[in-house]
């Protein structure tokens, strides 16, 4: 019989399953459990009257306790009652994967846990942030709906080639910072790589703006009165330092508006300002206003221009609902308007080309040649010679074949001969309702081209995780195990605790063991 988590994974499309990892609960050390206890104990005490009222009840409702790292199986049992689920992942995953999972109502929970050196704040995703931060507020039905809607917006937004470089640099920096053997030079190099990637951005993409909206709401959001807000953002709920700092006068509080999408953030430091939502309904108002600015809602020339400058694979949604995936390479303007919001007569897309409807591929395999989308009222024959004269001034002629390709293609625009590919896919549509980010059918696209699989975990992340496990001295690990056993069996031995405290002096940098011992002493 499958576990709740295995059932969740089985329901995922294959292109998302590749990012899922097992929790390997037995691999958590006793010190890992102590890290969890310390953080959750501090957060529960501090946030009782500072977090959104649903926070404490939400911890229990989603299977998150204070004494031990939560089991994803137990969380899935609880989350299923709310229409949600969770899966384990390793560190940062591609934004398109994260947002698609969220749109499906699946929390991506980093299976690793931060080191005790980073107990107040970690540069890498970990199980504290993803479970104790994101999950509890899902108990609020309306907020849970917002998370799904926000995930869909992020998934549809168009990302640029530079966005990918920035993502890889952020991921690399988080790995290096969590590696106990990383040198100062390696950290500096990783930081410089991120700065260089960020500086290379030619413009602020839709995807970047969507990530900012997510950051200032789901990650670092406050709710309520501007002068007396409560915390609901996962980044604040899961960070001791941030939770203590965010409500102080040192942090400027701004009423939430769509302007937050234009406010950049720095993941390496505490935020100097935060945005306050009136209530969770306010989140939907801002999301709707933001959504109306995106290509997948506006389409037309706006969407084509965004896709052209992004230099990434995106998809066009034609008037009849047909979806055409490819990279927009060229736009040819018509002498006058073609349709509302559209002055383009012809668009050239670079292959591979995938056609689909409602996200389901229509092709046995993608077309590896170029494609053209002509705008105007006209119909191509299924097979045979054709001539089209569109109201845009575009004239096309050639021979249509059974496979949807056209041969011997020639074209004129406003009396000028066009340089067109001799063989191409050709689509004709009177309008362009939408241009959206990524392939229309990620499952089929990934199966043929494996672009999403390029994420495959590198040696750097694997080595960093191994080093973190080996960094714990065997003698220190044994002391942690002994303290943990006393806690779990409720057999506290004062004399032995004194001996452990004395032995802990051999590890002056490990304050957490001493804190665990003192907490047990207070129970006697």
UniProtKB/TrEMBL annotation:
Residues 1-340 form the Biopterin-dependent aromatic amino acid hydroxylase family profile domain. GO terms for molecular function: iron ion binding; oxidoreductase activity, acting on paired donors, with incorporation or reduction of molecular oxygen, reduced pteridine as one donor, and incorporation of one atom of oxygen. Belongs to the biopterin-dependent aromatic amino acid hydroxylase family. The lineage of its organism: Bacteria, Pseudomonadati, Myxococcota, Myxococcia, Myxococcales. It comes from the Bacteria. PANTHER family: AROMATIC AMINO ACID HYDROXYLASE, PHENYLALANINE-4-HYDROXYLASE. GO terms for biological process: aromatic amino acid metabolic process. Pfam families: Biopterin_H. Its cofactor is Fe(2+). Keywords: Iron, Metal-binding, Monooxygenase, Oxidoreductase. This is Phenylalanine-4-hydroxylase. Fe cation binds at residues 129, 134, 219. Signal peptide: none annotated. InterPro entries: ArAA_hydroxylase (IPR001273), ArAA_hydroxylase_sf (IPR036951), Aro-AA_hydroxylase_C_sf (IPR036329), Aromatic-AA_hydroxylase_C (IPR019774). It comes from Pseudomyxococcus hansupus.
């Amino acid at each position: 019989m499958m576990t709740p988590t295995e059932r969740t994974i089985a329901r995922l499309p294959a292109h998302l399953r590749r990012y899922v990892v097992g929790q390997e609960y037995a691999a958590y050390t006793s010190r890992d459990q102590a890290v969890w206890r310390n953080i959750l104990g501090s957060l529960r005490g501090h946030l009782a009257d500072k977090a959104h009222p649903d926070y404490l009840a939400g911890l229990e409702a989603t299977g998150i306790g204070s004494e031990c790292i939560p089991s994803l199986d137990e969380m899935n049992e609880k989350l299923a009652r709310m229409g949600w689920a969770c899966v384990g992942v390793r560190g940062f995953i591609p934004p398109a994967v994260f947002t698609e999972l969220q749109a499906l109502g699946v929390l991506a929970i980093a299976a690793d846990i931060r080191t005790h050196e980073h107990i107040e704040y970690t540069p890498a995703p970990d199980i504290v942030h993803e479970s104790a931060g994101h999950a509890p507020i899902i108990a609020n039905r309306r907020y849970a709906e917002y998370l799904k809607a926000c995930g869909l917006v992020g998934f549809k937004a168009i990302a640029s080639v530079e966005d990918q470089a920035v993502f890889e640099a952020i991921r690399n920096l988080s790995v290096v910072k969590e590696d106990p053997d990383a040198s100062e030079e390696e950290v500096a190099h990783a930081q410089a790589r991120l700065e260089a990637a960020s500086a290379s951005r030619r413009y602020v993409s839709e995807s970047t703006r969507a990530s900012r909206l997510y950051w200032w709401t789901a990650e670092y959001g406050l709710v309520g009165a501007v002068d007396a807000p409560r915390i609901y953002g996962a980044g604040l709920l899961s960070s001791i330092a941030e939770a203590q700092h965010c409500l102080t006068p040192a942090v400027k509080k701004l009423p939430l508006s769509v302007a937050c999408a234009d406010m950049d953030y720095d993941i390496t430091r505490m935020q100097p300002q935060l945005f306050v939502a009136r209530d969770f309904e306010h989140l939907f108002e801002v999301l709707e206003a933001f959504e109306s600015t995106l290509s997948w809602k506006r389409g037309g020339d706006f969407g084509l221009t965004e896709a052209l400058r992004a230099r990434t694979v995106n998809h066009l949604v034609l008037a009849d609902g047909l979806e055409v995936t490819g990279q927009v390479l060229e736009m040819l303007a018509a002498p006058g308007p073609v349709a509302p919001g559209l002055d383009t007569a012809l668009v050239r897309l670079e292959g591979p080309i995938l056609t689909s409807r409602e996200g389901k591929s229509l092709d046995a395999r993608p077309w590896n040649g170029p494609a053209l989308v002509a705008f105007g009222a006209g119909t191509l024959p299924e097979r045979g010679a054709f001539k089209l004269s569109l109201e845009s001034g575009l004239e096309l002629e050639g021979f249509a074949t059974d496979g949807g390709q056209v041969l011997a293609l020639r074209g004129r625009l406003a009396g000028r001969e066009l340089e067109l590919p001799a063989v191409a896919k050709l689509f004709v549509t009177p309008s362009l309702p939408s241009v959206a980010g990524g392939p229309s059918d990620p499952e089929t696209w990934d199966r043929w081209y494996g672009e999403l699989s390029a994420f495959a975990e590198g040696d750097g992340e694997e080595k960093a995780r191994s080093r973190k496990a080996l960094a714990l001295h065997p003698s220190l690990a044994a002391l942690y195990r002994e303290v943990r056993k006393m806690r779990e069996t409720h057999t506290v031995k004062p004399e032995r605790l004194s001996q452990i405290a004395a032995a802990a002096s051999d590890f002056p940098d490990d304050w957490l063991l001493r804190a665990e011992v003192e907490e047990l002493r207070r129970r006697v």
